[in-house]
User: Fold Sarcosine oxidase subunit beta from Actibacterium lipolyticum.
Amino acid sequence: MRYSGLRVIQQGLTGNRGWKPVWRSPEPKPEYDIIIIGGGGHGLSTAFYLAKNHGLKNIAVLEKGYLGGGNVGRNTTIVRANYFLQGNSEFYSHSLKLWEGLEDELNYNIMHSQRGLINLFHSDGQRDAFVRRGNAMINQGDDAILLDREGVRAHLPYLDYEQTRFPIYGGLYHPRGGTARHDAVAWGYARGADARGVDLIQQCEVTGIDVQNGKVTGVQTTRGAIRAKKVAMITAGRSGQVAAMAGLRLPVESHVLQAFVTEGLKPVIDHVVSFGMGHFYISQSDKGGLVFGGDLDFHASYAQRGNLPMAEHVMEAGMTLMPMIGRAKVLRSWGGIMDMTPDGSPIIDKTPIEGLFIDCGWNYGGFKAVPASGWAMAHLMATGQPHETAAKFRLNRFATGHLLDEEGTGSQHNLH
Ligand SMILES: Cc1cc2nc3c(=O)[nH]c(=O)nc-3n(C[C@H](O)[C@H](O)[C@H](O)COP(=O)(O)OP(=O)(O)OC[C@H]3O[C@@H](n4cnc5c(N)ncnc54)[C@H](O)[C@@H]3O)c2cc1C
Assistant:
């Protein structure tokens, strides 16, 4: 069924009885050409582009829970292309271009809102770093505007400009940055993949990966064994555990990242604001909730919930930046499991096992990567060659030393 404004009106006038389920619920077949483990944003977009860009059909996505129940439905929805290093910048630039056409491509309202992102800086040194980043973004063909303090004030009048601990020197403004409705992105890709013949199988946990003579032959699941010629592991925070099923040890640690939302308020924050020095960022959802978060919980964990000290840290940072936030009531908090690599950049690659592929290491920035990751992973699986925008996301870079350390914080998982 094609969606349109006219159809919404028609359905509204006829009791909304004509909407159909958005995807099928097929039983798993005994064999597929391609199995994707993980029905998050990256697994679903990979399935979609395998079918759409490469004409492949005999594909299953196996999801242990429900589609969109992982990090793709837990993030703070920020979409941006403001990377500095070659290797990252062309990839995220490609991703943002895909975002800009995604609603048309999926025929789905993902509520992509390019409301602009402002990264604040608070010292001369930080300004220099943002000037360099802004120039790199412009060289990549993306947009970046350096704002001085008054420039920031014109956009964000509600910040505390008098506080002395983190005086606001200015900000790097990325007008094409913004947000998108996170679970709608999962649903849109799921609907598009299903329409192209992909089997989306929920409540199907992969419990083993079958390998014979160095080649993958299928997977064991809670719904039986399924054979496959190619298997992709796209399980974000669980990547280390799933790869271990094939005897692989990944350079990934899993850490919890929390986020928070307040009660719905009238429109007050119309940008995404990032206060990196205080570990705090915020935007306002279309429902009116102030959505904000901070840093990792700083210890490795598979718990999908956060700890109170980090909640306190984030609230303190919010109060420092915009004291008005103290008037809002926090409605909910939650956590997701982040697959942190030592250099903070992702992995899209083959593994040493023939036919077994890996897409992981999205750290806490993988939502904005969903379109380009699926695009690049599908390209790699269909052609055997890395896509040009993801050519540096190699698994062996931690052995060769060709790191993509965007923040320059060194080889430590919880610092990126
Ligand atoms: C609080 C928070 C805020 C964030 N904010 C942002 C942001 O603003 N912008 C941004 O770009 N990124 C953000 N991120 C990061 C982003 O959400 C993740 O990097 C990204 O969603 C990870 O990829 P995914 O969508 O494929 O993961 P997931 O949705 O987690 O998908 C992986 C799937 O694999 C499934 N799975 C695991 N093991 C198995 C198994 N054995 N068998 C079958 N299935 C399995 C899981 O159930 C899950 O559904 C944030 C994350 C969190 C938690």
